[in-house]
């Protein structure tokens, strides 16, 4: 299938996900601050919501239906106050909702890692080039022995349509996610589901937030950017963008945040919120600034 067929599938997925999320939000407190989107951004945001519910008596509802694109769409439809996104907004996102003045607030930095199961890692596969990753995605490479790994079938798990993780991966491979060929792989949703499926499947591979690669059940591969030069998703490589799949963690609002929306965004930018970002393995803004201002080696071999 071509990208057009994939986009039709993606649209159908969005309709189902957003309908479900809208029903959930409609049943919630109508005065509550409504937040939806990326499962990656959700980790620190959900903890921040618990703190503000307790300390400031703010009513807050959070959901992750549809991932990053679900957050964009629900914000565009006026059904939420804050969208969580683990991908930059595209011009397509903005053009779909011309009446919305999308405002991005970066709360941290993350990376998308290519992860493999333990047997693949132990079998000697420690990095991939872009061409090799394309070969797997396009089914020209179907056995790890083709990459000097174990004689085992490649079991690739693709992210669901709308996930920011998939879009970052596809943009790296093809320059534009719309140019990615549609692929009939088994799909996984959030980070936890992805890690569990890859960790429990021999010969498995997928895309995952780097902070979720535990080095026990799933392992983050390096990216061979040049022959003999491999870059890994280290803090230093994220900070200087030498790792090609680094990405911002964003809170999206319609215009500059105001009222309780501003109160929440300010909390995420403050010391307590930034501690939560770092707690979940992401780079906080302070860590990013420190790494970028001090000379350090890149995360490469």
Can you put this structure into words, describing what you see?
Strands 1, 2, 3, 4, 6, 9, 10 and 13 form an eight-stranded mixed β-sheet that branches. The protein has 301 residues and is of the alpha/beta class. It has two domains: 152 residues, D-Maltodextrin-Binding Protein, domain 2, CATH 3.40.190; 129 residues, Periplasmic binding protein-like II (D-Maltodextrin-Binding Protein, domain 2, 3-Layer(aba) Sandwich), CATH 3.40.190. The longest helix is centred in the first third of the chain and has 25 residues. α2 links the parallel β1 and β2. α2 runs antiparallel to α11. Helix content is 42%, strand content 21%. It is globular and about 55 Å long. The N terminus is likely disordered.
Topology summary:
Layout (H helix, E strand, L loop, with lengths): L2 H25 L5 E5 L1 H18 L3 E4 L3 H10 L5 E4 L5 H6 L5 E16 H5 L4 E3 H8 L17 E2 L1 E2 L4 H11 L12 E2 L2 H9 L4 E6 L8 E3 L1 E5 L2 E3 L3 H5 L6 E9 L4 H11 L1 H9 L5 H9 L8
Parallel strand pairs: 1-2, 1-3, 5-11, 6-9, 7-8
Antiparallel strand pairs: 3-13, 4-9, 4-10, 4-13, 11-12
Order of helices and strands: HEHEHEHEHEHEEHEHEEEEHEHHH
CATH H-level name of the largest domain... which superfamily? Answer: Periplasmic binding protein-like II
Q: How would you characterize the largest beta sheet?
A: 8 strands, mixed
The helix/strand class is: alpha/beta
Uncertain segments are 1-23
The residue-averaged pLDDT reads: 89
> What is the third-level CATH name, the topology of the largest domain?
D-Maltodextrin-Binding Protein, domain 2
């Amino acid at each position: 299938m071509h990208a057009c067929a994939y986009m039709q599938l993606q649209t159908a997925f969005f309709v189902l996900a957003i309908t479900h999320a809208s029903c959930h939000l409609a049943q919630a407190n109508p005065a509550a601050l409504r937040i939806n989107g990326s499962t990656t951004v959700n980790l620190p945001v959900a903890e921040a919501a618990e703190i503000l519910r307790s300390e400031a008596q703010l009513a807050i509802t959070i959901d992750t239906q549809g991932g990053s694109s679900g957050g964009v769409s629900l914000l565009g439809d006026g059904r939420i106050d804050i969208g969580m996104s683990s991908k930059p907004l595209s011009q397509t996102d903005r053009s779909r909702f011309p009446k919305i003045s999308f405002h991005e607030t970066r709360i941290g930095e993350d990376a998308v890692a290519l992860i493999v199961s333990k047997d693949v890692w132990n079998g000697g596969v420690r990095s991939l080039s872009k061409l090799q990753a394309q070969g797997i995605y396009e089914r020209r490479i179907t056995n790890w022995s083709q990459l000097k790994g174990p004689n085992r079938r490649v079991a690739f798990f693709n992210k669901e349509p709308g996930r920011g993780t998939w879009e970052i991966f596809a943009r790296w491979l093809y320059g534009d996610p719309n140019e990615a060929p549609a692929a009939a792989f088994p799909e996984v949703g959030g980070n936890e589901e992805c890690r569990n499926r890859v960790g429990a499947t021999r010969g498995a591979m997928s895309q995952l937030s780097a902070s979720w690669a535990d080095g026990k059940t799933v392992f983050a591969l390096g990216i061979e950017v040049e022959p003999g030069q491999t870059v890994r998703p280290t803090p230093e490589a994220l900070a200087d963008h030498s790792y090609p799949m680094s990405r911002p963690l964003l809170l999206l609002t319609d215009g500059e945040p105001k009222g309780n929306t501003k109160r929440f965004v300010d909390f995420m930018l403050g010391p307590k919120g930034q501690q939560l970002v770092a707690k979940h393995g992401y780079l906080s803004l302070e860590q990013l600034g420190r790494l970028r201002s001090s000379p350090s080696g890149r995360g490469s071999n």
